[in-house]
Design a protein that fits this description.
Layout (H helix, E strand, L loop, with lengths): L1 H9 L7 H47 L4 H13 L12 H11 L7 H13 L9 E3 L10 E6 L7 E9 L3 E6 L13 E7 L5 E14 L2 E7 L3 E5 L12 E7 L20 E8 L3 E6 L8 E7 L4 E15 L2 E8 L4 H21 L3
Antiparallel strand pairs: 1-8, 2-3, 2-5, 3-4, 4-7, 5-6, 6-7, 6-8, 9-10, 9-12, 10-11, 11-14, 12-13, 13-14
Length: 361
């Protein structure tokens, strides 16, 4: 532009007026700018139309599979979380969907609304049978190193063990058992019920059959047939074992003002009280006590033997008279650490096996 103006001031050999030349140059520049703007605007409009058309196609395809607005939005958000440009791809199979859920962490534990939404998607896509909570078994759920609990059926009902999944292939699962001691009574052809819990998801149960048992040096490996379906359990399941233990505890009555269990402000209720457990699980225990407790009361147990530590629990059931002026209660642990829960689980499984060995069928 400065060059054009300078040329105009010096005059042109064609006899053009300098001012006219300057205006012509400005018109040319304006025309070029206008054309550039129009082309850019056309590209923007074309891009927006493509995006809108793509969204319409996505909605149409997802709608054709029976998903409503909230479900379609969830699937599209899920696809974006895992970097997929096509939301319907995460619905290509149950494996794709479950892997995307695991990767995105869009299903937080304890969110019933999200759980209902995901369960609805599973049902509409045929991965869960109508009216039940069964889901097609897949590798995304059966992850290596997941802890599993095994329960005998039929003549071996009551026998239980814990193990970890080492390997899987399209036909079999390989598990290593914990603390089996080489005394596993199972053999090829026996049926088992297997349970495992996935954090931030749910619990799963499946039926399987033992294909092979390998024991060496006190370590037992089980080769199980790959299950066809899993039953999904939203609530975590804990096995119970009959464990009778005398307990001593202090009481924090329900509704005690100005205090919270576990805080230094708690004023526990004076004298130590006593009771006797009847059965124990990693989720809670049932006990009998001559002392009157109310639903919602917190109790602090001193050196609960099944856990090897002090335990805080809350009374969640008043089960009625146990005779001789005593009452039977159900309690649930509060603020239990993963390490202590694991200690209790091991104690429960050991107690169940001991009971079966003492009272064989």
């Amino acid at each position: 532009m400065p060059a054009v103006c300078a040329a105009a001031q010096e005059g042109f050999p064609w006899g053009l007026d300098p001012e006219a030349a300057r205006r012509s140059a400005l018109y040319v520049l304006a025309a070029v700018g206008t054309v550039a703007c129009v082309l850019t605007l056309k590209n923007i409009v074309r891009w927006a139309r493509r995006g809108g058309a793509r969204r319409v196609r996505w909605d149409t395809r997802l709608g054709a599979r029976g998903l409503d607005g909230a479900e379609r939005d969830f699937v599209e958000q899920l696809a974006r979380r895992v970097g997929s440009q096509q939301p319907e791809r995460v619905l290509a199979s149950v494996n794709e969907f479950e892997e995307a859920l695991e990767q995105s962490r869009m299903l937080p534990a304890g969110d019933p609304r999200a759980e209902r939404l995901v369960d609805s998607i599973r049902r509409k896509l045929g991965w869960v049978q109508a009216g039940d909570t069964r889901i097609t078994a897949n590798d995304a759920l059966l992850e290596p190193n997941v802890a599993m609990e095994l329960f005998g059926t039929g003549a071996l009902a009551g026998y239980c063990a814990r193990g970890s999944l080492l390997h899987r292939d399209p036909s079999h699962l390989v598990l290593i058992l914990e603390e089996s001691g080489g005394d596993v009574p199972w053999k090829k052809g026996d049926s088992l019920q297997v349970y495992f819990w996935r954090e931030n998801d749910a619990g799963y149960i499946f039926q399987s059959e033992i294909f092979e048992v390998r024991e060496h040096g006190g370590i037992c490996h089980l080769l199980l047939t790959y299950p066809e379906r899993l039953e999904r359990k939203q609530k975590r399941m804990f096995m119970r074992a009959r464990i009778e233990e005398r307990i001593r505890f202090q009481l924090l009555p329900r509704g005690e003002t100005g205090s919270r269990p576990g805080s230094t402000a708690v004023k526990w209720g004076g004298a130590s009280l006593e009771g006797m457990t009847e059965d124990v699980s990693a989720g809670g225990f049932r006990f009998v006590s001559p002392h009157q407790l109310q639903l919602g009361d917190f109790i602090q147990l001193s050196q609960f033997q099944a856990a090897g530590a002090d335990i805080l629990a809350q009374v969640v059931n008043v089960l009625g008279s146990a005779g001789d002026g005593a009452t039977r209660y159900g309690a649930q642990y509060s603020g239990l650490t993963a390490k202590i829960r694991e200690t209790i689980t091991r104690r429960v499984f050991a107690a169940q096996r001991e009971s079966l060995n003492r009272n064989p069928a």
